């Protein structure tokens, strides 16, 4: 009955959602260094370097906040 009201989800669905989110986070974070390497190598201004890094980290956080396992339900555990 609680599952029908949307209060409970099968553990397999929750595990799949969390696993997908972890994999997505890993992929997003691993892309930061290659994307910034050339830009940072050309900079001698530490303020500009910090700005470039902050922009990439904020973009990664935005992508993670919008994670959808199926491309539809934002922030909702499927089930």
Describe the structure.
It is a single chain. By secondary structure, the chain is mainly alpha-helical. It has a domain at 11-65. The chain is built from two helices and no strands. α1 (11-41) runs antiparallel to α2. Mean pLDDT is 84; it is low at 73-79.
Write the layout of secondary structure elements.
Elements: H1 11-41, H2 46-65
Question: What percentage of the residues does DSSP assign to strands (E)?
Answer: under 5%
Q: What composes the largest sheet? A: none
Number of strands: 0
Gyration radius (Cα, Å) is: 18 Å
Q: Give start-end ranges of low-pLDDT stretches.
A: 73-79
Class inferred from helices and paired strands: mainly alpha
Distance between the termini: 14 Å
Number of helices: 2
Helix coverage percent: 55-70%
The general outline is elongated
Helix-strand string? HH
What's the rounded overall pLDDT mean? 84
